[in-house]
User: Fold these one by one.
Assistant:
Number 1:
Amino acid sequence: MAWKTAGNLDALLAATDPNRLPRARRLFEHARAVFDDDEAAGHWLSTPNPALSGHAPLSLLATDAGARRVDDVLTRLEFGVYA
């Protein structure tokens, strides 16, 4: 799936659960800042991640706790802390 804009993320999440949109927007912006690219950010958010017990980051946005886990991984990537 090509992630050209945050609008793509809006449409996807609004169709499934409108309560996730603010979390997803914030995390998409964080991922975009970390990867410096919309498509790379979208790919990272939709790909299973070992640091998230094999879950894709987007699948964890249903709860605040899940969103915090995703944000924590992004912050570790941003600052080069991999453990």
Number 2:
Amino acid sequence: MRKSAVLLFAVILLVACTGSNDVPSGILKPVKMQAVLWDVMRADAFSFEYIRRDSSKNTEAENVKIQQQIFAVHQTNKDEFYKSFDYYRTHTDLFQPLLDSMVNKANREKYKLTQKRQTVKTVE
């Protein structure tokens, strides 16, 4: 009887400790999703800012090529990424911290770039 109670307690503890932040299989984990989303957003910005200025290039086709490269680097694919993106959009308790972390990363990069530019100006 005591073994059953200990086993039941262990199972309940195990279930309770697996947080609601776990994502189902087939969905990118938050850290990986953040990395892929970061690169996809940067690719979109690059396409919008630079590729669209080149009239000989199809911006949308070039963006698709860049995204395929991103997915290859991160060992995922378009379907898994967009399925994961839809999942996170509907689970704001997971998506909000992911986005907040990305904003912080962008701010850090912007700060580093600003510091670098100021250093270059003072050297000149």
Number 3:
Amino acid sequence: MRIRKQEIGSSNLVGRRVEEKRKSMGMKQKELLAQLQVRGVEMNSSGLSKLEGQIRKVSDFELIAIADVLGVSVPWLLGLE
């Protein structure tokens, strides 16, 4: 497992939960990116890494697609559930 090189940011609330759920499913970043692409979300590995590290903001469209791929609700990703 790779160690995060950058400090955790504060640009989004969902990054920690995205990473947590993805890893609990045994899903690699490449697999999540492929599933997002099928749903019309164009994101590269750097973008996903920054999103998970809370360095990159996430759009509403991306948020809905991520929730769908991970099988969770948007409120759960936002820490509201």
Number 4:
Amino acid sequence: MTKVFVDTDVCIDLLSGRMPFNSSAEELFSMADLGKIKIYVSALSFANIDCVIRSQYSGSNSRKIIAQFKTLVNVLAVDGKTIDLAIASNFSDFEDAIQYSCAIENNLKILITRNIKDYKKASISILTPESFIKQKQ
């Protein structure tokens, strides 16, 4: 089974219904729900997701949405080593550096994001949801 790390932006596309990106995010997460792929996200993503969707939904509803979302993904820890790797990286965006370091630390070879330009120096495959879906068809 293909294991992928999914960046926060794609998760937010799914949970907020952010158009036009939500349809590819929905397809990606449907693949996970059907057992075709295994999706990993960092623990950091949950804080970022909550900040965004709380403005769209009430606090209690955002927690319900996050709880449902958690059933689709495998949550990876962000620890001191992950932060050290992010600090030492050449990524200009620190949050992206943390996400990338988390994927690397967990031996994931594919990172899915809409933010391709921020991962130019990556040593693993960086794909948009659309390009990943096309590869899997």
